[in-house]
């Protein structure tokens, strides 16, 4: 496949599928519950930040929650795009191996690829687990009678890691290096950016309408339950909801 044809296919995939991400964002808003927000975030932080009105607390809670949720949702979406690209160029397929997202053959090597959003996704225990997934997938591959060598790839859709070879049996390819690895094109990491803006204005207008409605609903409910008649927030009640145990609970 020549470069121009591949880029056109990738652009078409993005245009046809980016609305899925936007609709997932809106669906997340519609499913969100006020108590879920209050239980998942640190109430001491919001008191320390001097947030003293229902609107300020709700806006800060919702913004932090949705930002985190969007990172996860868009990471999942980018994984789908990466698998599409690898399939078009190298016949890559979504893997059924535990902890592995993509498998592909390239230049006489079978690759097991775990796709991450960015380079800072892991702590020591999660990275250890990923290495175990690579070892397990390669072991199964060998015992199934496959003779060609295999390699684990920790692929990050954005960012930079200046030491790709981790000297433990796997490579960490980030940003430009990752997209070049699965596409064969130096420019793929920049080629995908423009089509991501397809219908972005209208899609985000719809999201903002739903977001504003959610903020209004939650602010009214929060003020009714967690503010006194003078408008003072009942921080003790907020902390009890977030961190309190039922009466009689023992460990």
H/E element string?
HHHHEEEHEEHHHH
Q: Which percent band covers the strand fraction?
A: 5-15%
Mean pLDDT: 95
Q: State the low-pLDDT regions, or none.
A: none
Distance between the termini: 63 Å
Number of domains: 1
Which overall shape is indicated by the principal axes computed on the Cα atoms?
Answer: globular
Strand order of the largest sheet: 1-2-3-4-5
Q: Strand count, sense and closure of the main sheet?
A: 5 strands, mixed
List the total number of helices. 9
Structural class: alpha/beta
- Total strands: 5
**Overall radius of gyration:** 23 Å
**Helix residue percentage:** 55-70%
What does this structure look like?
Helices cover 59% and strands 11% of the residues. The protein contains 9 helices and 5 strands. With 251 residues, the protein is of the alpha/beta class. The chain has one domain (3-243). The radius of gyration is 23 Å and the shape is globular. The longest helix has 37 residues, at 54-90. The model has no long low-confidence stretch (mean pLDDT 95).
């Amino acid at each position: 496949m020549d470069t121009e044809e591949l880029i056109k296919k990738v652009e078409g995939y993005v245009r046809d599928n980016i609305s899925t991400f936007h609709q997932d964002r809106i669906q997340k808003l519609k499913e969100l519950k006020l108590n879920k927000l209050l239980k998942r975030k640190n109430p001491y932080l919001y008191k320390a930040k001097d947030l003293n009105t229902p609107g300020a607390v709700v806006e800060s809670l919702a913004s932090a929650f949705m930002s985190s949720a969007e990172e996860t949702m868009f990471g999942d979406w980018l994984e789908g795009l990466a698998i599409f690209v690898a399939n078009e160029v190298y016949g890559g397929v979504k893997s059924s191996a535990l902890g592995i997202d993509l498998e592909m053959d390239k230049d006489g090597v079978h690759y097991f690829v775990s796709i991450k959003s960015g380079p800072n996704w892991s702590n020591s225990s999660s990275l250890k687990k990923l290495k175990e997934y690579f070892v397990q997938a390669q072991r199964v591959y060998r015992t199934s009678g496959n003779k060609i060598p295999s390699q684990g790839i920790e692929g990050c859709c954005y960012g930079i890691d200046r030491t790709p070879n981790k000297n433990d049996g796997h490579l960490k390819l980030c940003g430009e290096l990752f997209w070049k690895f699965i596409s064969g094109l130096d420019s793929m990491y920049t080629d995908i950016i423009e089509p991501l803006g397809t219908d972005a204005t209208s899609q985000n207008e719809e999201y903002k309408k739903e977001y504003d409605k959610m903020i209004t609903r939650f602010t009214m409910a929060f003020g009714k339950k967690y503010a006194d008649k003078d408008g003072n927030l009942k921080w003790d009640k907020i902390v009890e909801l977030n961190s309190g145990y039922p009466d009689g609970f023992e460990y």
